[in-house]
Specification:
heterodimer, A: mainly beta, seven-stranded mixed sheet, globular, B: 114 residues, mainly beta
Chain lengths: 116, 114
């Protein structure tokens, strides 16, 4: 099992350019997430998908869109990149959301994005 | 105020020593708690869940104090390989019909020195 995979690993964009970050998981998880990580800020949730066919905004959704293409894949799109979107982006998945129990999240290796 | 707060460190620890640090959370309705480990330029990985009664996993001990709203992590007999950033994660179940929202602390850096 590859777990959670992300592409690309690195990307440099110019302001105003668009791009899509790809994420796939092979653990048959229902829920998937996109986070960004900035120094001193911790991971912040951009969007999540509780299950196939649903997506919802997280803490910092502005400037992003997502698509839950199928159970395996969850993509993040930047329509018009801005320097403030320079960050490390992590995709994650977990088995289920509705329990108050101990679901854990499994993370992909991250995408480092620089917007000039 | 951040919902999950951690001392950023770094905690410089001699090899073989014990180090402990806390994480405070603001929402008393928080349901579940985790410690994740993140190595430099890598993804976070689950270190251990934190149970109400406290739990150990080898050299690592996690405690939960609901009254004071903090969790702690203690590392005994520190190894060089324990050098990492430790992220506190709190899962807030908003309602019984909605999903939990994972809140991450910014992390505590631990540096174990020879």
């Amino acid at each position: 099992n590859a777990g959670v995979t992300q592409t690309p690993k690195f990307q440099v964009l110019k302001t105003g350019q668009s791009m899509t970050l790809q994420c796939a998981q092979d653990m048959n998880h229902n829920s998937m997430y996109w986070y960004r990580q900035d120094p001193g800020m911790g991971l912040r949730l951009i969007y999540y998908s509780a299950s196939e066919g649903t997506t919802d905004k997280g803490e910092v959704p502005n400037g992003y869109n997502v698509s839950r293409l199928n159970k395996r894949e969850f993509s993040l799109r930047l329509e018009s990149a801005a320097p403030s979107q320079t960050s490390v982006y992590f995709c994650a998945s977990s088995e289920a959301l509705r329990l108050a129990g101990q679901e854990t999240q499994y993370f992909g290796p991250g995408t480092r994005l620089l917007v000039l | 105020r951040k919902e999950v707060e951690q001392d950023p460190g770094p905690f410089n620890v001699p090899e073989g020593a014990t180090v402990a640090f806390n994480c405070t959370y603001s929402n008393s309705a928080s349901q579940s708690f985790f410690w994740y480990r993140q190595d430099c330029r890598k993804e976070p990985k689950l270190l251990m869940s934190v149970y109400s009664s406290g739990n150990e996993d080898g050299r690592f001990t996690a405690q939960l104090n609901r009254a004071s709203q903090y969790i702690s992590l203690l590392i005994r007999d520190s190894k060089l390989s324990d050098s990492a950033t430790y992220l506190c994660v709190v899962n807030l179940l908003l309602t019984t019909d909605s999903w939990g929202k994972f809140q991450f602390g910014a992390g505590t850096q631990v540096v174990v020195t020879p």
